[in-house]
Automatic annotation (TrEMBL):
Pfam families: LprI. PROSITE patterns: PROKAR_LIPOPROTEIN. Keywords: Signal. The keyword Signal applies. Residues 189-263 form the Lysozyme inhibitor LprI-like N-terminal domain. PANTHER family: LIPOPROTEIN LPRI. It comes from Rhodanobacter umsongensis. This is Lysozyme inhibitor LprI family protein. It comes from the Bacteria. The keyword Magnesium does not apply.
Amino acid sequence: MIPTMPRSCVRALSWPVVWLLAGCGARSAQATTPLAALTGTWEVVHVAVDHRDQPHWLYFPEDPRLLGRSVSISASAISIDNNTRDCQNPSVTALPKAGLQEFISQRFARPPQEGTPTHPTLSDFELAMADAAVLPEQIGCSNGASEWNASWIVPVAPDHLLTNYDNSGFVLVLERRNAASPIKPSFACAKAQSAAEQAICTSAALAGYDRSVAAAYRRALSLAGEESADVRREQTHWLTTRNACGGDAGCLAKSMRERTDQLMQQ
């Protein structure tokens, strides 16, 4: 489920412009354009993967490791709060126009396998968007080792982006966050008692990680079978260590990120 809007709403949008970032090699550049329209904070509200290429998944649909993450874009850096390397001094370079369907099918081509077409469709990623013409752009970073370096960007709506920032086989739907955007952890903030819970209730980024832990925990329990008691016991122990962070946002983010990764490996 998308935390800020139903997935059906995302799929039903027929945007005249879509922001699309997807990792691939560059084609011939045309002109450099400013980042001003992208500047701000965004949240991952949908994780889409190719449903016909499950054997090659690195992430799952609505994967808690990506869902709820914050993306910050400014003239000095592009970052996603999952402990990967920021894009320093980013630039965007205009590339030849393409159809959205063509863009997705070429950038996420499948390995040859019997009975499955080489090129996926928008519906294979559960992206029910109009196959409109888009104007791809390429992101460049002064630090070439950043996962964002050589990713792609295509202007569409001012409040949504699609991204594949690290060249893996997923598409993220991002929604612009502003001061009026609600903070939604997995628990009721009116009942927050510990310093950790109170800190989570004042930070959209921490609230996103809290939802990720909760989703990963539910998944781990569903797979645990006879070992579910062990998963519950481990979660109780982890909550004690998380609460020891108090209101330290960096400590809380690290604790919840590591717990999410741990649960997703069970």
